[in-house]
Every structure is written in C-alpha cells, then in structure tokens.
Design brief:
Blueprint: H1 2-17, E1 44-47, E2 50-53, H2 58-62, H3 67-79, H4 85-95, H5 100-129, H6 132-135, H7 138-152, H8 159-173, H9 184-193, H10 204-219, H11 237-240, H12 242-263, H13 268-287, H14 291-301, H15 304-307, H16 310-314, H17 318-330, H18 334-345
Helix pairs in contact: 3-4, 3-5, 4-5, 5-8, 7-8, 10-13, 12-13, 12-14, 13-14, 13-17
Length: about 350
C-alpha cells in the first residue's frame, strides 16, 4: 500500500506540472535532474555518430566561438571526408565550453589543417596556371620544392594533403619533352633554305595545324612582364616589349603570305579555289581555338588588293561567303571583341 501511495503522489505531482508547460516551449528540466556540478556527468556522448551534450550551460559558451574559427572548422571537416568519432570530438571541443587548455589544443589542430589546405591550393594554382614563373627562376622553384618537402614531414599531415603536396612537387620536377625543344628561330631557316611545296599540295587541315603550331611558338615565349604598362604603345616599344612586337610582325607576315597566294593566281577559277580553301583553313583554325589565325585570314581577305577582285568574288559560292561573314563577326572588334571573348569562355 505504501508503494502504491507513493506512485500516486508522483503521478499527482506530474499532473500538476502539466499546465505550466507551453506547446511552443519545451518543459523545464526538473530540479532533481539539473546538474549542479558538470563533473558529475559525461560531457559528450555519441549516438549514431552524433555528438550529444549533457549540460545545458554549454549552449551559452558556443557563442564565444569566433567566425574565423567556425569557418576553418567547417572547411577542414568538408575536406577530410566522412567524419569519424575522433573528428567529431575535435570539432566539438573547439566549439563548446570545454576546459581551455584541452579545447585550444584541438581547435588549433583544426585551424592548422585548414591553413595548410589553403596554402596547398594557392601553390597548386600557381604551379599549374603560371608555370613560366618557375621555368625562368630556378631559385624560386628550389625554395618551393624545399617548402613542400618540409610540409610533407609534418606527422599530423592528412593523407589528402600529403598527396596534394606530392603532386605539386611532381609537377615542378617533371621534364617537359614537348615543343620546348622547338622555337620559331629553328623553323624559319628550314623554310627559307628548302624548296617549299606548292599550296595546292597541302590539305586545309594540314595548313591549319601548321599555322596553329607557328602561332603557339610565338605566343608561348612572351614573358608576363611585357603585358604590364601597355609598353607596346610606347615610343620605345621594341625595347620594352620585343616579344609582343614579334607577334605583330608574325601576324603581318602570315597575312601577307595569304594575300600573295591569292593574287599570284592568273585565272579567276584558280583564285576562287584558293580563296575557298583559305576560308576552310580559317574555319578549321576556329575549331582548333586558334582565333589569331582566323583573324590573320579574315584580315587578308579584307585587304584592298583582294577585296577589289570583283569577278573573283562573283564566282565564290554563297556558302563560302556566309562562312566568311560568320568568321568576321567572331573576330570583330565591336564591343571590345565581345563575340571573341564569349567564344574564349566556352
């Protein structure tokens, strides 16, 4: 009977407490459950991979976390793959009211990992997008490799970070066996010394590929410093920007060559065939993303000596004329080369 009476009393107490609870607000914790000393309970527990806190006063301490630390924690967690209990523990210790000495230790670990990841991303972009900086400066290349090797000796380095550092070192140390062995100066004597085959003996595809190779040899050697300050518009442009001025000379040489090939034909039928072939070359260069060659060919067709060939242009097919209009719109200077800039984004 005494046991039953005690249970009835407990039920009555719980019934009396129901009116105080609000449907939009969770009921308050009973006094006999509230923790007076946080050391009496386990601070964190794991439930299906989720971190559960057992003390309400920790919610007030979460606001003390700085925005920079929170961003670093979130970034590091996203880069490390599927979080484990240990990773959850580190992230939780850095963002809640744990004792200062132990909390700061794990928070610094997360921030170090985030900082390392950012540094590696900057170096990877630098090496992949601006490789001439390292090709022309061996001291810079050596220092970056030494720095990455030092980073790889860090015992706390994650596997993903170690692989990223190794890939950057591999990119810096690998030898390029491509066209670095060929320069425009090596190609020019071969053309001048030997006997060139007639224009009719080469296909449009072969000509387009050779034009693309020549343009590549000209553009790849331009140092970044020549693009600063618009030195090609100064009076001493040949001294300030010699490589950019070389591209201008190459452009004019190719344009003169195309006009010469058209004008050297004596009969109209042959000239029509040569014009249509050069237009086909320009369209193939467009497919090869060599818009400089497209501009070289279209500018040569617009020269007064070629444009005034009225009898020749009357016999050029409508498809060829439509293709010429399409290519000229592509490389037009209207809107600061708007169409060309849009094509480069694709």
């Amino acid at each position: 009977l005494s046991v039953r009476e005690e249970s009835d009393n407990d039920q009555n107490q719980s019934d009396d407490g129901d009116p105080e609870a609000s449907p939009t607000k969770s009921p308050t914790t009973p006094k006999n459950v509230k923790c007076k000393n946080s050391s009496e309970f386990s601070l964190f527990s794991y439930n299906n991979g989720m971190v559960m806190s057992s003390c309400r006063e920790l919610d007030n301490n979460r606001s003390a976390l700085s925005a920079a630390s929170a961003f670093a924690i979130a970034t590091a967690g996203a880069n490390e793959g599927t979080p484990t209990k240990e990773k959850y523990r580190r992230m939780s210790l850095a963002s809640t009211g744990f004792p200062t000495d132990q909390r700061n230790g794990d928070k610094e670990f997360v921030i170090r990992r985030a900082a390392t990841n950012r540094v590696l991303n900057v170096l990877r972009h630098w090496v992949s997008k601006h490789s001439p900086d390292f090709e022309s400066n061996n001291e810079l290349k050596t220092k970056v490799i030494a720095f990455l090797e030092e980073v790889m000796h860090d015992p706390e380095l994650l596997t993903q970070e170690r692989k990223a550092a190794a890939n950057i070192i591999r990119t810096l140390t690998q030898e390029d066996h491509g066209d670095n062995q060929i320069t425009l100066e090596d190609v020019t004597p071969l053309v001048e010394g030997g006997k060139a085959d007639p224009f009719e003996n080469h296909s449009a595809l072969e000509i387009a590929e050779q034009l693309t190779l020549l343009d590549h040899l000209v553009f790849k050697v331009i140092p970044y410093a020549e693009f600063f300050g618009q030195g090609w518009m100064k009076n001493d442009k040949n001294e300030k920007t010699p490589y950019i001025m070389r591209t201008t000379k190459h452009f004019n040489d190719i344009s003169n060559l195309i006009a010469t090939e058209i004008l050297r034909c004596e009969d109209v039928v042959t000239r029509v065939a040569v014009i249509e072939k050069w237009v086909a070359v320009a369209d193939i260069c467009r497919c090869l993303h060599n818009y400089n060659a497209v501009l070289e060919i279209t500018s040569s067709l617009n020269r007064s000596s070629v444009f005034r060939l009225k009898k020749t242009w009357l016999k050029v097919s409508k498809q060829t004329k439509a293709l010429i209009d399409k290519l000229q719109k592509l490389v037009s200077s209207e809107g600061r080369f708007k169409n060309l800039r849009e094509a480069l984004k694709k």
